[in-house]
Design brief:
Elements lengths: L4 H13 L4 H8 L3 H14 L20 H13 L5 H12 L5 H10 L27 E11 L3 E10 L5 E7 L4 H15 L11 E4 L8 H9 L3 E4 L9 H14 L7 H17 L11 H5 L3 H27 L1
Parallel strand pairs: 1-4, 4-5
Antiparallel strand pairs: 1-2, 2-3
GO biological process, one term: DNA integration
GO molecular function: nucleic acid binding
Organism: Sphingobium indicum BiD32
């Protein structure tokens, strides 16, 4: 079976970021180890572009990136060390109005020994509910996750995430996981989204698991009173809430780098990361816009602008090549 370059890259990222041994991960994916390591060697040597199944061809000299652009990319990479080559390429294009591809950034960083191995864990969870949403506030995912505060005990984070945009609408740090904590978080979400207005005809549908707080009668009464609806994932199948599971893991990868001794310290770190996640973190599944861009309807204009920048950049490089060749 032939895999397109995009699928090869996704498989490489899954194996790199899996908490399981590579052999076990590959067995679950149905990929032969010999095949995977052939892809991986090509990827490490040439970046995502090297995964394409095509014969070798002469380099397109006209499309070579100028040295001053190389320097600017390296400068950005040194300033924003937490960004991946994909995120650096998108940010550079947005900020400098000059298109560079992920593969170009990867090769440049690799040449300067600035590529690091993944230092985080990503769970494998379904990216989408069985019926995909088409607009913000159509469906919200909600769940709890937990954090240990040294000398204090456990705290539980209740979050409401918009399924369409992955935007964190509301969150609350709780001492328990009660139905009351769920409804308090939903109150915050309804106000923040404007869905508490009587003029909103289509209220969000809530997606949760089957935890005690989500099957409680108190929550059912709240849902009915607010003219919402509620669906729950299949028991023992957390992948149904894949997006919020991924959010939890992304959050913990950052938050758990430090120890916390007071609830206020943890709350401040969560607040800062939610702000970063919503407004600064480019999301690959959202065509490399932020959750806030997708939630507030800015994504189409941003994507259109990037396509325009890409065309203008390529035309500029072609023109510069012709001038030099004349």
């Amino acid at each position: 079976m032939r895999y397109p370059a995009s699928e090869k890259l996704e498989i490489i990222r899954i194996v790199e970021q899996s908490h399981l041994p590579a052999k076990r991960t590959l067995d679950q994916l149905g990929i032969a180890r010999r095949t995977f390591y052939r892809w991986y060697d090509r990827y490490l040597e040439g970046g995502p572009e090297a995964l394409e199944d095509r014969p070798s061809a002469p380099s397109r000299v006209w499309n070579r990136i100028p040295a001053e652009i190389h320097d600017q990319i390296i400068e950005l990479a040194l300033e924003a060390t937490a960004l991946s080559p994909r995120e650096l390429a998108v940010r550079f294009t947005d900020e400098q109005r000059y298109f560079v591809s992920e593969s170009t950034v990867y090769r440049l960083l690799k040449a300067h020994d600035l590529i690091t191995s993944p230092a985080y864990v990503v769970i494998k969870a379904a990216d989408a509910f069985h019926t995909k949403t088409t607009r913000p506030n159509e469906m919200w995912q909600t769940d709890f996750t937990y954090f240990k505060i040294i000398g204090w005990g456990w705290m539980y984070l209740s979050t409401v995430l918009d399924d369409f945009s992955r935007y964190i609408i509301a969150w609350k740090l709780c001492t328990n996981m009660r139905a009351e904590d769920v409804t308090d978080t939903l109150d915050l979400a309804l106000v923040a989204s404007g869905c508490d207005s009587a003029t909103v005809l289509h209220k969000p549908r809530l997606l949760s698991d089957n935890g005690p707080s989500y099957i409680a009668g108190e929550l059912a009464e709240y849902i009915e009173a607010n003219k919402m609806s509620h669906v729950r994932g299949a028991p023992m199948h957390p992948q149904t809430q894949g997006k919020i599971e991924r959010w939890h893991q992304t959050l913990k990868n950052r938050i758990l780098l430090e120890n916390y001794f007071l609830p206020g310290d943890l709350e401040a770190q969560i607040e800062a990361f939610v702000e970063h996640y919503n407004h600064q973190r480019y999301h690959e599944s959202l065509n490399n816009v932020t959750p806030a861009d997708a939630y507030f309807g800015r994504a189409p204009a941003i994507i259109k602008q990037r396509e325009r920048i890409k065309r203008q950049t390529i035309e500029y490089r072609r023109l510069q090549h012709r001038k030099l060749a004349a």
